[in-house]
């Protein structure tokens, strides 16, 4: 499954946020493919369309789609040189698809800050520098290797070196690799380097309980927003402490607590949705009387691959898919009505699945 790594300096609220994530926890029986590991939290993706489909179909069961958050604690200054538990953590970051970077925007005299004062931009730069240094190391090693290969006369290394040099230049200027505009081909050339600064990032600005409903009144949050805008990154203000409390409540109690705080929904839900978007993911639905369910795919996946997300047999034996878009289905009011209006399409192996498609697969066993 796709995953998002949670990083940040010590004492910024990572564990508090991660605990809220695991506490809010997904029904694990629904997600047998997910990793069982104390550092992995499975989250369900809130989606109003799923509620609407449930109303329409009244199935026995509704299952949201899910992805994983991984707690990557322990990054400190000097990590790229192997200080702290340095390299081990960088290796963990290498494996995730996107990064949620928690930064401290709350003031609390009782909680020590590693650098002595609340300074979210300084914190971001400290961590980013470690990631940049680790990437520089990877890039320089690869340039050396490709230069040697180039002497053998293989032209494909010319373009590779050209891209690597551009990335190196950006890194030297303290800019993440993702800030460069690379073509799809150029991206492919460097993909196997798994550069840390190529991964999409979202900053979670951790504010105090009192600021939960009005986080943008916190001047540090504004600084983080300005910084992120320059990088083209997203910001989600959140109060980790409040989320930890919310995650212990359910149903009406939860609604009441949110209302008291003046929140329309939990910050965790906002974070999950923002992370999902950051990962570039699409959702399609299956809607049977037994089960209405949301499934996650990457943009651009074709029907057989999308079917494979449910079960590998579905991909192997794929014949065709019956497809209706979510909007058409809801407007028609029922599957039969959509069919009568000619909105139920038969699609084959080359069909590229769209976000919000409601699919029914035909396959050979
Ligand atoms: P980590 O080292 O980044 O995992 O940080 P923790 O989640 O362990 O948090 C460090 C300390 O800060 C803990 O005592 C938390 O209770 C506290 N903390 C986290 N978020 C907030 C917050 O929003 N407000 C206040 N006052 N304390 C917080």
UniProtKB/TrEMBL annotation:
UniProt KW Hydrolase keyword: no
Record keywords, A-Z: ATP-binding, Magnesium, Metal-binding, Nucleotide-binding
UniProt cross-references to Pfam families, sorted A to Z: MMR_HSR1, YchF-GTPase_C
InterPro entries: ATPase_YchF/OLA1, Beta-grasp_dom_sf, G_OBG, GTP-bd, P-loop_NTPase, TGS, TGS-like, TGS-like_dom_sf
Named cofactor requirement(s): Mg(2+)
Keyword Oxidoreductase: no
Gene3D superfamilies documented for this protein: 3.10.20.30, P-loop containing nucleotide triphosphate hydrolases, TGS-like domain
All residue ranges annotated as the OBG-type G domain in the record: 2-258
Positions contributing to ATP binding: 11-16
SUPFAM superfamilies: P-loop containing nucleoside triphosphate hydrolases (SSF52540), TGS-like (SSF81271)
Function according to Swiss-Prot or TrEMBL: ATPase that binds to both the 70S ribosome and the 50S ribosomal subunit in a nucleotide-independent manner.
UniProt family annotation: Belongs to the TRAFAC class OBG-HflX-like GTPase superfamily. OBG GTPase family. YchF/OLA1 subfamily.
Protein name: Ribosome-binding ATPase YchF
Organism: Paenibacillus oenotherae
